[in-house]
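ok so heres the complex, two chains, lmk if somethin looks off
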Amino acid sequence: MKYLYYPGCSLKGSGRSYEESLLASFKKLGVEMHELPDWNCCGATAYMAVDEMKAFALAARNLALAERYGDGEPVTLVAPCNACYLALMKVQKYMAEYDEVGRTISDALASADLSYRGGVRVRQSLDVLLNDVGLDLLAEKINHPLGQWKVACYYGCQAVRPFAPFDDEYNPMSMDHLMRSIGAEPVDWPLKARCCGGTLTGTIPTVGLRLSYIILREAIDRGANVVATACPLCQFNLECYQSQMGREYGEDLDMPIVYYSQLLGQALGIDDRSLGLQRHFVPLTAAAAVG
Amino acid sequence: MAQRTPRMSNLHITRRIKYQNELDLGFGKVMTSIPGAEDLLRCIQCGTCSSTCPLSIYMDHTPRKIIAMTRAGFKDEVLSSATIWLCASCYSCTVDCPKKIKITDVMYALKRKAIEEKVWPRGLPIPVLAKEFFASVLRTGRANEGRTVAKVWLKTRPLKLLANMGLGLRLMARGRMSMKSERMTGSVDQLRKILDSVHNSDTGHSPG
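and the predicted structre for the whole thing:
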């Protein structure tokens, strides 16, 4: 199996451990990931609010590069970050659905000798793990089952909304299946794809913190001892503002917030450092598993 | 704005409705011409969006009301509303709407309109964030989250920058944040050319 990989800016910054653990795990599973050469920012949420067309253009350049890279062969571009995944999917759909978007973006790409004809399939890494790698191969490769973890699988919004080509919009199950396959126990909870507050933690903190806290509180109440995320912004909000939430709501919070790929990597026998676990504030330790 | 009648002792009497000539009747039309927002006129006012929205408890006008007000021409009230800035793009309303209206796109369109008309709520750093984000992308082709956020706070709330210094340093110590920006491997010129081309093809939907 061979894929093109679109990291996006967060996976080179605050979400570095997502990239480290995902690439290490894919390698162990025999999946080839090639980073899209010369990729640029996807345009994501912040930019949509200022200039939608330019946001589309940013995303579209990456699709054009991916298509050219494929050189006539079908290309799958894997975007592990939810915001990138959505931005790339959205421009793909809107270019086809709205003449004005299609025309403006095609013209803009042409001005830089690029073109995009819709030949790239954009996919989230969870989708690839579940539906291409598959649970059978995973079961074969797991050599360190992680029975100590009760995992709240937290998918975030944009992996499944508004486009949900591989899972349910409110009750996605792919990460749950993945966690079961590595021996962990996914907890049953209703907030799997509820909003963490996104950038509101920075722009309107009282509101953003509350939304993140709702997720964390429910995970605790449901008996989870770790939260696994699929999105660098969700991960950042739940982990990096945890002490602030603790102060605001008068609680001692010490819930490890990791990427599903870090747990997968541990189960595959990859060492913690290669999975970037030392980069986290709340350590993923056995002590947490007992409490 | 509805007019306030002269004060009569302690009795404040305010007209609660607007007359048609006080509305901007073209506003709804302008908004429905935007990709994704064209179905606004099909809204049946069922309120599904307001009930599914995780932020509606904080909003001055619920999403349902924003849609009604938008198409009725309550331009000032809609554009100065906190609602559009509270939308965190979770797309719950969009997937739940029985008339398949892309409500998240409508919220984006309203944000852009508010920035264009310079009526966003005072002190809200979102437009500054977007501007700094764009500057970073123009410079390197990529976004540097930490640097961008630090700049925004420096410009809007220096005290907040100080309050979050600790977090920034902890992130840096763990290799999760750097003041040095990641760059595209090729030249950023190609990207600038593409953005310039969009800028010059006047779509009428972007403030420039």
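quick notes: Chain B is about 50% helix and 0% strand. thats all i got rn
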